[in-house]
Predict the structure.
Amino acid sequence: MNALTVTLVAKQSVELRSSELPPLKPGQILIQATRSLVSTGTEMTCFNAAYDPGTHWDNWVKYPFDMGYLLAGRVAKVGDNVNDLRVGDRVTSRRPHGNFVIANAVDVVKIPDGVSDEQASWMGLGKIVHVGVRAAEHLLGDAVVIIGLGLLGQLAVQYVRLMGASQIIAIDTAPRRLELAAQHGASTVLPMTAEQAKPEVDRLTQRGADVVYDITGHPAAFGGALSLARKQGTVVLLGDAASPASQRLSSDLIRKGLKLIGVHDCLPPAYPREDVRWSGRDMSELVLTYVARGQLRVDDLVTHRYKPSQCADAYAMLNTDRATAMGVVFEW
């Protein structure tokens, strides 16, 4: 059986490639995709090869490279030793953009009633933010700053609202992103850089933010993020910088006694209590629960939909229109 995959064949060159699928191994399923979401930050870094030599990006992206990791669809076939999934079940998984993909059954999450396939394709991004807000160890009433209102930033605004933040200050230079953040719960939006925002953040919070999220992945934002936190506050790096050597610590880290947390999706937060555990599946399922309840809104974050045959157009658009483009979906 042949499958189509959105493949990066060289820098800034994607195409829809056909390849033969191997037989299912025990514990695997075949998913027929209906929707997949472009992770714009990650995928455009890969597309443009905008990373430093020797970084994990450089070691990860090898041509031909299958793009994407946010997919939803239906179970088309079930391998041996799979007992909790049936043909026809709606599922979502961290798999590349493709019409038919193979996944390990343990890595698949069923889509609940009331959640569309397109909404479910956001699960992977929601789980990344879930890891971040748990690592931040929020307290009710926290003053929170979120720098960078891309897809993760928009979800972070909604998550910290659910965590009971008293102030959610959203910072970005793109007006449309700030408008969406305000619609999703930001109490203040600041159309400027993190460095420029310090006087206003100090005025609004009186002492600096309890928690600052840098979700830009851009080295220039890091120093500004440190400056916006209060004494003994927390700074969470949720954006994966492609040029980490360019991220420079400022004296704020020591002078203020800040807690600096690096967050990655593959590292769930640790807890001091042994009876409190959240697995990756637990967090993924909670994302979908929030979506089903309307507590996490993603529909209005989708700005573009493409057929897979238009994949080159999709990435070209993102390369020129990142300020207004948000959720980009492939309809399979």
Q: What stands out?
A: The mean pLDDT is 94. Residues 40 and 197 are 25 Å apart (CA to CA). The chain has two domains: 2-122+298-331, 125-262.
